[in-house]
Protein 1
Amino acid sequence: MIKFDRVYFQYDNLPVLKNIDLEIVEGELIVLLGLNGSGKTSLFKMINGLLKPSSGKVFVDGMDTKEEALLWEIRKKVGMIFQNPESQIVGTTVEEDIAFGMENIGVPRDEMIGRVDQVLNFVKMSELKHVEPHRLSGGQKQLLCIASTLAMHPKYMVMDEPTSMIDPISRENILKTIVDLHRLGKTVLFSTHILDEIVIAPRVIYLRNGKIVFDGSPIEVINSVREEFGTSDFIEFQSDLCRRGIIDHFMDVEKLSERLVDLCQSSLKK
Ligand SMILES: Nc1ncnc2c1ncn2[C@@H]1O[C@H](COP(=O)(O)OP(=O)(O)OP(=O)(O)O)[C@@H](O)[C@H]1O
Ligand SMILES: [Mg+2]
């Protein structure tokens, strides 16, 4: 479990996180929604001790992030992926980049070889194993960061706006990969300022000016966010289907169209 216990955080005199109480249990898929400057990156950096609370505590599986001696163990459990993939890629080939993190945590060589293939297969980039990372597209670079982190077998995957610097098609691909990571058994947190992206997660945490103003399902969050975010046709369409009792939760485009096709087919059979 990841637990925030009355966490406040400030940069110099600027309050950034205010009274954050939060519990994240194993196996959850959570989206942290917030506009620019709301404190998403700061909140995520608290989880692996890159930032420490000004007051209050953060625990990862019972380990206090303020205890320097526990940081190594905490960071092995928490894989972090940041907005800009460029800043995280270190290898001169895709394969080397994936190996690098594993070397750091002492994964034996034989084991490393197998894991490289597994994670490349997971992100569907096996044929790019020997490619130099600078030749990859933005979306592929982000997938490489996911693969390199996954190869270290973290329990938690924390992704800070993983879709914000890439094109819309790659964005879909990253969102699918997030769902796949969750299916794989990882506890996944990702942040976004794009409202449509909340549909892939059953739990939305909405951060406004450093405060959690909502914690619940995507359907429920919509009423709280309309004022600040506006809305989108995609979200309004799903809200309407929910009001009519046609679906009972929001879903991604693919699942939604499958659901609608199923409904049409079963009504034709009647
Ligand atoms: N290193 C820093 N020094 C001082 N203030 C900072 C620093 N980093 C962030 N801030 C401020 O802290 C607040 C929260 O920033 P944070 O980066 O956590 O928000 P965010 O939701 O991730 O924003 P974005 O959408 O821009 O990534 C903002 O007001 C920001 O200007
Ligand atoms: Mg940020």
Protein 2
Amino acid sequence: MTYTSALVHDLLREGFDRSPMFNGRIKSLGPRYCPSIEDKINRFADKDRHQLFVEPEGWNTCEMYVNGFSTSLPEDVQFKAMRSIVGFENVKFFRPGYAIEYDYFPPTQLKHTLETKLIDGLFFAGQINGTTGYEEAASQGLMAGINAALKVQEKEPFILRRDEAYIGVLVDDLITKGTEEPYRMFTSRAEYRTLLRQDNADFRLTPKGFDLGLASEKRLRRMEEKREQSENFVQFFKETSISAEEANPVLEAKDSAAVSQQGKMFKLFARPNIGIEDVRKFEAVESYIRSHNPDREVIEQAEIQVKYSGYIEKERNNADKLSRLENIKIPANFDYSALQSMSLEAREKLNKIQPVTISQASRISGVSPSDVSVLLVYMGR
Ligand SMILES: Cc1cc2nc3c(=O)[nH]c(=O)nc-3n(C[C@H](O)[C@H](O)[C@H](O)COP(=O)(O)OP(=O)(O)OC[C@H]3O[C@@H](n4cnc5c(N)ncnc54)[C@H](O)[C@@H]3O)c2cc1C
């Protein structure tokens, strides 16, 4: 790892007037989360150095990737600045940094299946939809591919909801809100991230994969076994009591308040500073583990279900409440212009996006809760 310096920044600044990103030849917005070095110097002018990671390009090459130094400044400026970085005094170039500009199609022109609304049978996935990122491209490719295949087979489309998968959030964001800058999927964009966990990805998606013919029966059975075993383990904690004498030494060791009488283990395990290693000190738990021999994933799943059950349940209720709006469908090609009690902006946006459900309509920017009420009345609710 090395750093830029005030000297390096001064040298780079000399090239700003020749940079296509600065002199206006390139007008696009760069990806917010991976700014070029000139962008960083400009936007974070108070910093006198920036971190650079020097990453080998492979086992059998002396070529290094200078992570953190992406740039579209003129080659001579890059080279001079680079040689002024500590450790890079004798550096040689394979090729200079460069900027690329992409065009994209506004993704609001797509259906949830990623099929274009205008051209039947044409599906778009990846960077063409205004996203950036490997996973963003890969997941859209998967969804577009599945739906193209289903369409050819005249089967029902495959759509993941926002409370079922990050893919659901990604696709819904893109087609409902569009994007003005390279879109990245962040967990913070998902309102139901307590439900969308890595540890339950198999519970959420393996049955769907199996139905589509994309996951084997063996895989489905393994998932079902894991689910059953972890549910049984959770049930054990709910049903099994523990005496105060056995519980208190373990609780005290973890600065957790002592109990005065016998109680269910579930309540103790749910305490914030009590983990699986602590409850394993109870004879009944150790004996359960000895006789049932659950694997690591089952134990972890049970622990999550016990510790976060309150939060998970609350989130599930919220999602179910909203999914009622998800079930109220809006007829295709609905004409919003006639709904005078709705704001003009909402009517314009709704006409353009043509949401499929009331819930999708509510997520369009510029559509207010009162516009949604008007729509609900109109749909007879
Ligand atoms: C330098 C760089 C670094 C990046 N680093 C990261 C990173 O660290 N992490 C990350 O997540 N993302 C990164 N990205 C972004 C990520 O690589 C892209 O968003 C993603 O690969 C886009 O995938 P895609 O399949 O949509 O498009 P592409 O991978 O661009 O695929 C489009 C394909 O279509 C082909 N094609 C084009 N026109 C035609 C035609 N007329 N006929 C037939 N084929 C055609 C092209 O040759 C290409 O193979 C980086 C991008 C760049 C440029």
